[in-house]
């Protein structure tokens, strides 16, 4: 192994372990995509160790070239997705809005919001106060273990702490991802207001989430049939940017593959009967 490559692997291993530790300490993340960092650290450490012991197998040049090409292709594809992530159509209507949908982003083990979710809550509360204090806020987030309870419960409590009246908050506590967030929020609003599902989809709705997540959320909303949505985002903490944007690149890739092979998510009005059965 070349000396520069060995040094690179050592630096990458140290960085990966330290970055994972920072995420765990500051935000309580230790599962999901966050586990990629210690995995990278372990792989890099193992390669350096095997090289030190002289047991690192020689890699065929053809195989190495194929791996290099695949990495290059994925890198270009990731850059395209990153451009999409960094180009959300963020706009707030000049007049009032009908509803606000606050997308969840995960709980810490102690039931408190992560920095990302806390920032979303701040932005959502200020938006509600500044635009139209009579509109309903749908706090989205189901129970994803090992969190102690549904995220929507925490979101409602935190919004109340930020002086949002409880009577204007609706809990959507069944969804486990962004698609379900937006599906269930529309159906919940229809049930609570007495409006048809189509009327809800035609309403003026602001989706509140983090900056890295907004483009995908608006794309999903459009595919589900939301006609008049606006995006409003919060900033991501500097230490979480790398992890958050890497996660989002993978999430968009997953969504693109899902659309390619299944055609879903589709227009919500078409799936209304099947969705209502699951409520």
Oligomer status: single chain
Tell me the overall shape: elongated
Along the chain, the helix and strand elements come as: HHHEHEHEHHEHEHH
Taken as a percent bin, the fraction of beta residues is 5-15%
Distance between the termini: 57 Å
In round numbers, the mean pLDDT is 90
> Which bin fits the share of residues in helices?
55-70%
Spatial strand sequence of the major β-sheet: 3-2-1-4-5
Taking pLDDT < 50 over at least 5 consecutive residues as the criterion, the unreliable ranges are: none
Total strands: 5
Compute the CA-based radius of gyration: 22 Å
* Number of helices in the DSSP assignment: 10
- Structural class by secondary-structure content: alpha/beta
What can be said about the biggest beta sheet? 5 strands, parallel
Keyphrases for this structure?
56% helix; 279 residues; 5-stranded parallel beta sheet; single chain; elongated; alpha/beta
Summarize the structure.
Helices cover 56% and strands 9% of the residues. It is α/β, with parallel strands linked by helices and 279 residues long.
Question: What does this 3D model show about the protein?
Answer:
The termini are far apart. The chain has helices at residues 3-27, 36-52, 61-85, 115-131, 151-161, 178-193, 197-202, 214-224, 241-262, 272-277; strands at 99-102, 136-140, 169-172, 205-210, 229-234. The protein is elongated and about 70 Å long. The longest helix has 25 residues, at 3-27. Helix 5 links the parallel strand 2 (136-140) and strand 3 (169-172). Helix 1 (3-27) runs antiparallel to helix 2 (36-52) and helix 6 crosses helix 8 (214-224). Strands 3-2-1-4-5 form a five-stranded parallel sheet. By secondary structure, it is α/β, with parallel strands linked by helices. The chain has ten helices and five strands.
